[in-house]
Amino acid sequence: MVTTLDSVDVVTVGVGWTGGIIAAECAKEGLSVVGLERGRERGTEDFSIVHDEYRYAIRYELMQDLSKETITFRNSRQQRALPMRQMGSFLLGEGLGGSGTHWNGQNWRFLPYDFQIKTMTDEKYGANKLPPEYTIQDWGITYDELEPYFDRFEKTAGISGEDNNPFWGQRSSPYPTPPMKKTPLLQRFETAATNLGLSPFMMPSANLSEAYENPDGQQINACQYCGFCERFGCEYGAKTSPEITVVPTARETGNYEIKFNANVVEVMKEGDRVTGVRYYDTETFEEFIQPANVVVLTSYMLNNAKLLMVSQIGEQYDPETGQGTLGKNYAYQILPGASGFFDEQMNTFMGAGALGMTVDDFNGDSFDHADLDFIHGASLSMTQTGLRPILHNPIPPDTPSWGADFKRASIENYTRTLNVGGQGASMPHRDNYMSLDSTYKDIYGVPLLQLTYNFTDQDRALHSYLTERAGEIMQEMGATTVVAGSPISDYDIVPYQTTHNTGGTIMGADPATSVVNNFLQHWDAENLFVIGAGNFAHNGGYNPTGTVGALAYRCAEGIIRYSREGGSLV
């Protein structure tokens, strides 16, 4: 038996950064909001004993239970897709705060080039710079149009940083808090990069350099540099996350309710409007319908796409014909880089998730690509995140991978290695996409999402070029041995890489080439909004969170306007 609940103004599917921002902004305007979160409630008080690498970083305490729902994966359409049985390449969050609880805290704005990549690339290099199977397109919004929303998110999160990167877009105001500590290791990177004619700057960080009260009155504490950020919640309330900022802001209005253990399986639609969502209580398996005037998909981008597919909203992308937009333009990231082994010991076990220095000289279109067989690039950084002993066992080349020699080399080099790494932009390709699996289903009987993805020639060329640049920086830093990252071949979903998946519900100016408009309003249902990194038409050289946060504030503005006026927002 299905229980139909009282209707509300807005329902969000997922309560992480996007769901929290939508809830806070709409609730402050007097709209009634319900957030459906399939995980449990949690907060700073739950992380008082979080310094347990095995529990959180190895056994994934804060992550999605893949025995209930996962994805299937294949490199090409010719292969059989198989379920991902354990966390590997990316880590899917679950519970209040979502991935915003266990992120590292690097907070970037995508570059002006990213939002108009098709136009700018064609103007500078000609329309044939990339072969036609690369489906790059503009986002339907410019950096300047999105800048006020970037500014809003950074002030909510209290981001610590400095505005001395010559390659990124103009800012309307300084960072809310100063940059983090420039440690001796980061000074070494800064000196080497400067000697090479590059422009290093401190990484924008959601691990705050000082205590901060945001515009909504929420308190964020100062980072203690304990080195337990990525895969962990923050025991100090110093890593900005939804459950210490936007979620309490929404709750304080009295217009917001969160229903935990609520797994949404369908967006309900009648004609050209949606009417609400259907969900299961994950503990009792009771079935509910939550009616709403506006439905907002704010879960992880993989699940947003899946919900649209199982609800048959939008046209599924077909790689054979190129028709359809839902599931199109899935993109990941590549990780060029180089490691260095040094003679002296360093405090590599100390740090914070976004404590680092970066150069953007090889990101976006900051350098000339005329004679290169790829576009875009990567931010190259050295981070001091706090290296933990289980997952960090650096050994020089030709060292055995087990036994006494391995143990000796691992202990020797634990505090004697550094890494310069890049987040390489991934361009969409005709054959990289998401669809529904025809064989496997989740615990609720819903088809699993199927991911078809492989690295491309563009990826391999960019990876090779940027790995060389990283090696040059590491050599200039004085490493006795420099080990460049191995060339990439086929994408493997098993080893962890990044949780920076994009595409599938892309935004744009034309319903023929996008799923949502630039207010993240669905082209096929005016009271349905879809927000997350799935809106990105390609992946960039940064973490996606800052850009997702900006889009969420724009989306919230659109929902409030729609609630008052109705109709299409563009």
From TrEMBL:
Keywords per UniProt: FAD, Flavoprotein, Oxidoreductase
A Pfam family matched in the record: GMC_oxred_N
GO MF annotation terms: gluconate 2-dehydrogenase (acceptor) activity
EC annotation from Swiss-Prot or TrEMBL: 1.1.99.3
InterPro entries: FAD/NAD-bd_sf, GMC_OxRdtase_N, GMC_OxRtase_C
Family the entry assigns: Belongs to the GMC oxidoreductase family.
Annotated Glucose-methanol-choline oxidoreductase C-terminal domain residues: 428-552
Domain Glucose-methanol-choline oxidoreductase N-terminal: 216-329
Name assigned to this protein: Gluconate 2-dehydrogenase alpha chain
PANTHER family, per the entry: LONG-CHAIN-ALCOHOL OXIDASE (PTHR46056)
